[in-house]
């Protein structure tokens, strides 16, 4: 399409920019917006753009060219904004003279193994500027960096080849590049404005724009319906999961998918249903708990993410499955739900304190630190302090720090005697606990009780000058 063919879209973008600016402080919630504050640089004359193209032996994709000549030479844009034309070259130095005109290698279906091989090639090659330039030209050539996302991550325009005009994300840590779904720069840019206006990018939490399939919920469900394979279905549902809300029709479709599919597609549908309508998902969550295994883990995840206020409602259904939990990841999510529920933990967690898996015992001690019934869990923490593994002891020391430390003093003495040589930061934790108890340090736990008490009295007298 020629630049003239983008006029309607350019006008929509101008209008949407005005609407975004009208959001005021709410619009500045978007990641990076505080940097550019939705300001634009003046557009470039066609002759200036043509000069840049001639110097580098390239022809800029029409959609991007239309933007810089009719809307702005950079400024407001995704993440920290859009660079002025050519400013991205400084991020690509040292580069070959023909870097921009080199054949573009980046494409949407980069095989992970192929990318690992490319990175291994760079590691194995000579450590010289010439080798670096050759490698970057081969794999990043034919792209123009348009802006930064922070942490050495960039968005770039693919300049030639079958994917010319599309936006790619890559970084200096050699993570596999990602090509966005949109066909051209203007579609990508307009999607950014749409997701600000519909609230997607103004929601609390990370808002990594462009990493998921775009469109409203109806468009994403249509993409799901016509998807040729499960990979595309997953992409559509993942894109849907980024939305702040969906329609009643989409909720109905999600529930059907959640009940009739399997694998990752089913998981994404279940997650979406729990996010968008937790009450509607509630019966399904109870069914997932009853099924155990992976379904139990997913149910705990969704309750913790989307139904914290209702966590107590699920405890009685979850408890019978505790003995069957065999993976530490499932245990983590199960314990998060118990923490969210704010219930008495002592009786429920007592069997896990002696679990044969160290990771289970350590994780339980971390949960005990947050127990609302501090006195009831003292015996469980004491068992952790006598554990054979220093990692469990470390967790138990931290769990004990919020309770009655005098009740733990004999156990602290035993820990100090066992760990004359430090292991897993036990010395630092004992020192901190000793200071909170008015003692000089962990060595005080090994002193006779009378000596330690006298030492404390001496310190009190010194504080008051007596």
Helix and strand topology:
Layout: H1 7-21, H2 33-36, H3 46-56, H4 62-70, H5 112-124, H6 129-140, E1 143-150, E2 153-158, E3 167-171, E4 178-179, H7 185-197, H8 217-225, H9 230-241, H10 248-260, H11 263-276, H12 278-291, H13 293-306, H14 311-318, H15 328-341, H16 346-349, H17 358-368, H18 378-385, H19 390-400, H20 405-418, H21 426-436, H22 449-463
Antiparallel strand pairs: 1-2, 2-3, 3-4
Please, could you describe this protein's structure?
This protein is mostly helical and 466 residues long. Among the domains are: 3-197, 3-Layer(aba) Sandwich (SMI1/KNR4-like); 213-276, no CATH class. The protein contains 22 helices and 4 strands. A 4-stranded antiparallel β-sheet has the order 1-2-3-4, with no helix packed on it. Strand 3 and strand 4 (178-179) form a beta hairpin. Helix 11 (263-276) packs across helix 12, helix 12 (278-291) packs antiparallel against helix 13 (293-306) and helix 17 (358-368) runs parallel beside helix 19 (390-400). The termini are far apart.
